[in-house]
Design a protein that fits this description.
The chain has 322 residues and is α/β, with parallel strands linked by helices. It is built from seven helices and 19 strands.
Amino acid sequence: SVPTPTHEVIIIGSGPAGLTAAIYSARADLKPLIIEGEPSSTSDQPGGQLMLTTDVENFPGFPEGVMGPDLMANMRSQALRFGAEIITEKVSKVNFSNHPFELWTNNSTDEPTYTANSVIVSTGARSIMLGLEAENRLIGHGLSTCATCDGFFFRDQEIAVVGGGDSALEEAIFLSRFASKVTIIHRRDELRASKIMQQRALNNPKISFLWNSTVEEIIGEEKVAGVTLCNTLNGERSSLDISGLFIAIGHRPNTDLFIGQLNMDENGYLLTGADQSTTNIEGVFACGDVQDHKYRQAITAAGSGCMAALDAERWLENFHDK
Ligand code: FAD
């Protein structure tokens, strides 16, 4: 096959982080190549996590709110307008120990599909889901994975949170500001969460617990209307009427690709330098949810995408000066 020319910047992933990095590096005349991912029935897909939701009301600049997919289509066309090139493929292998860096979208060849002087990793993260068929249909329609994002939509409603760790309790406590009742559904009879979070949740008059229970089914065609529960001790089934369900059983960053090459924390999140987007490999930068387990918002992902583009631009300047 004919080797393609080495790109100045390749951006892996096209969520808010990747597309913001693309807008900045395209406007810096670096002609970025964005490998945007491939449509899939599960979480990662071109446009990233906001493709899974409906109304986004907290992205600045949209006083009336904006639909997640529309926001991502706007970011995409903004990147294209300045000359970014977008390829609808998934990176399947990288080699960051050679320079130029090597990337494959097709594992069956020895030759890398693309080479680049710098790489921006913005492959995001995914919420761990229950694995129920109804989840694909109802996400963004009463089913959510983000209380900060969607809590506001559930004022005076009865809702439930699935999970038993710190983040599940944090979500439940936040949601109790809006909802009339929050039921925490937990498969065991004790929580993994820290004692202080447990106390806060147990003392909250709007929060109640359903122990030893798993969600077997989410009820509702177009919107969440309830759940069918199974008692893990005796197998008994019951139902709970709710208009909102929050899944809070954890997140997984999309970083399998980088194992052994980029430094990660114990949960697989990429480690970046303090207040910057640098990784342990010079010339490889990371931004967005793939390196952020704390804030996980579109605006913070976009902000860190901007940082990665500026860091890459400066790094490339020094690299070409040598
Ligand atoms: P992601 O959006 O996760 O994008 C990752 C990208 O990487 C995707 O394009 C994917 O296809 C690509 N990718 C992954 N692996 C590969 C690979 N091997 N090769 C190529 N590409 C790859 N935030 C808000 O601020 N407001 C909200 O209202 C809001 N609502 C939300 C509702 C839901 C249901 C969910 C799930 C999230 C919501 N969020 C919201 C959070 C927000 O979506 C994320 O914080 C944000 O999308 C993170 O951006 P990112 O660019 O880092 O990653």
